[in-house]
Write a structure and sequence with these properties.
Tetracycline Repressor, domain 2; homodimer; 67% helix; DNA-binding
DNA sequence: ACGCTATGTAAACGATTGCTGACTTGCCCA
DNA sequence: TGGGCAAGTCAGCAATCGTTTACATAGCGT
């Protein structure tokens, strides 16, 4: 570990970029965009403040980088050619499973707004493709009969997942500390009721 | 209308207090706590900035006043001795009915955080009583068998409603512009699946 | 009618914000 | 091994934040 106590860290642009991104994601997700200061992020990452502007141009740029990062990760993992009956289990795992902390950050980031127009578009794109995949898993196709309500139901499902994430992070008990096994039942009921083909 | 174009408004402490509260609710709900400036609120209300501190002590005090106001209004109207089968219809009306604008502000305010400890407690109290009422409508009682899961399901229902509100305000189509009649069906499915006694 | 108080106004305070420029210093390659 | 450039540091800028203070005035009670 070169970054142990004392001593200057080895110079590595890519590594500090990653450090900044990770710290920014945590802060933005937990506190929101405006409440997070660039000095907070830099301190968390153990990095000089000015490097944020060097590597990401601005605070807005850093936020956009966080969003596109989340988009990439969700794009690779979520509901990718997944049978409909596995989805409730998968989402329950994301909400309360072993890696729930990382997923919660991703979902919360999608609910944080910076006011910047470009960032808003990125966020909207991610949400839309997310919903599209969910809808496709339920048999949705662009022109088919009832496509409108199918898409609507997929988006309501997505909204429920995000609402649960949000209320879990507000320490509303017993929801906040409910484990994966307790969430799976209700979630299966919720999803089958909304997405049944 | 004494407040028409030009001319000083008639002096009325209670009235300007109301103006400030209304403007603050809209701003806090739409933009969040930190992103909202006291000058924004004062301009919206057509009132001098310093009066915020006179009537509400601080920006935090104004935010707390907004929250307790929402708590009072929701406390009087939501799920008050309501039969279980009416609840989906009622919530659909709140999400997309004629007064949806006002209700959306109230729900969004409950998701905005100021970081202030006292405000967080107020918010948590409102959410908890909200969930309690929902749970009670489904037959929940403090000691009865399965009380834990009943409360959990009520909170998940609440979370879904708030998630829908949140995604509707992010202009996610078709969810954002879905009317009351389109929302009622999916919501009834969702609620009966979660709250069936 | 007049004076006192509640109400509203204007200007500025110190603190904090995002960001920049000039600078040091570590590291790779010739 | 040393020159050159990328990587990191430091101090301070202008703008904006919430708040306060000193002042003006409308309106009510006598």
């Amino acid at each position: 570990m070169t970054t142990s106590t004392a001593g200057t860290r080895r110079r590595d642009a890519a590594a500090t970029r990653r450090l900044l991104l990770a710290a920014a994601r945590r802060r933005f997700a937990a506190d929101g965009y405006t409440a997070t200061t660039v000095r907070d992020i830099a301190t968390d990452a153990g990095v000089n403040v000015a490097l944020i502007n060097r590597y990401f141009t601005s605070k807005e740029g850093l936020f956009e980088a966080c969003l596109t990062g989340v988009g990439d990760e969700l794009g690779r993992t979520v509901a990718q050619d997944m049978p409909l009956e596995r989805i409730p289990l998968d989402i329950a795992a994301r909400l309360a499973g072993p890696d729930a902390g990382e997923y919660r950050i991703q979902l919360l980031l999608l609910l944080r707004s910076s006011g910047d127009e470009r960032a808003e578009r990125i966020r909207a794109d991610i949400l839309r493709t997310f919903a599209d995949r969910l809808a496709t898993a339920t048999g949705w196709r662009p022109g088919v009969a009832g496509a409108g309500e199918r898409m609507l139901r997929a988006q309501i499902t997505l909204a429920s997942a995000m609402g649960i994430t949000l209320l879990r992070s507000s320490t509303l008990e017993p929801l906040a500390s409910a484990g994966q096994e307790e969430l799976t039942g209700p979630l299966r009921d919720l999803f089958t009721a909304l997405l049944r083909p």
